Every structure is written in C-alpha cells, then in structure tokens.
Amino acid sequence: MNKYMKYSIVALSAASMFIGVSAFTGAKNEDQADKSEYVLIDVYELPAYEDKGLHIHYGNGKTEFIPYANDMKDHHLDDNGDLLVKTLNKLSSEGYEVISTTGGLGDKSGFITKVFLRLKK
C-alpha cells in the first residue's frame, strides 16, 4: 500500500507541475497575441514641420503621436533625445527590441529618422 501512495504522490506532483508551467506559458502567448510583430517609429526633427515629434506605428491600425514640447532650438536637443530614449525603453519593457535604424535629410531643413522594432522571440 505504501508503494501505491508514493506513486500517487509522484503522479499528482508531476500533473500539478505540468499545469503550472502550462499556465505561465499560455499567459505569455496570450499577452503577445495582442501585439503586432513589428513597430516603426518615425522621428521628425523638422523645425518647420507642424507635427514634429515621434510618430509610432504599431502595425495593427494603432498609431501614436508624441510631439516635442519645445521649439527645437539647440538647447532642447537633449530633451528631444531623452523623449526618444524614454519611448524606446517603454517599448522594450513591452517586449520589443530595435532591429534597424535609418535617417536622412527632410525637405524642410531638418532630419527624419526611422527606428524599426520587432517583438522579442
């Protein structure tokens, strides 16, 4: 009888562990199912452009615009860089990582940067 009790306890422990691990794995998959695999951040550093700031494209019909809170003078460039870093940190905490960046001159004497992110696997 003692032998059957040990096997029963081992079987119940194994089943409990399997259910527990499955629950955490399922939660991760459900959380990532709501997210697009890629995100694009357009950084418009164009002083004459009305919508200068960060334009975030999530790829699932959702976009977000974060305007620069200043007039883009030299002494505000650090503030603008800090806004981009905060945004990247936020997206990193949501499971994204930067995979590529590119940039070039805009048509209104400024700079446009594109930052491509992908959901971490």
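(ticket continues) Second input and output from the same batch:
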Amino acid sequence: MERFRFEQLLKIKTQFEEIKKNELAMQNQILNEYIARKLELEKNMNKVKEDLKTLYLSGFSPQQLKLYSQFLTVLKKEGMFKNS
C-alpha cells in the first residue's frame, strides 16, 4: 500500500487540533465555573436585597443593619453589586 504523501503533515495537524480541543474544553470548564459563581453571588445578593426590604418595612435593629451593611460592602468590593 502506498503511503500518503503528506501523512506526517496530516499527523501534526491532527495532533494540533486535538491540543486545541483540549484547551477549549478546559477554558469552557473555567468559564462555566465563573458563571456558576456569578449566579450564586447574584442569588445571595438578591436574597440580601429582599431581606433588607423586609427589614425596612418591619423595622430592624442596629446590629442587623450593621451586618447587612458589611455584607453589601464585601459584595461591592468583589464588583458584584451595583447600586440599583
């Protein structure tokens, strides 16, 4: 059987494509982890907002206000909270 003339080139191209597929899969995994983390932070932030609304309507202690204020400060530092 006659050897394919550019067999070595085809082999290199195939290896290169496999490397790129692996890199893409790794980047997609990292992206999915970031998205999951962002969604979790947004969920927590929305819960805090709802809790604050409830507290504003029903009244709250200074200790509770301090706790929520500190939590919102942490979220702002992480860039996950914008005044809305």
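Agent notes: Residues 7-58 form the longest helix (52 residues). The helical segments are 7-58, 62-77. Closing as not reproducible unless the customer responds.
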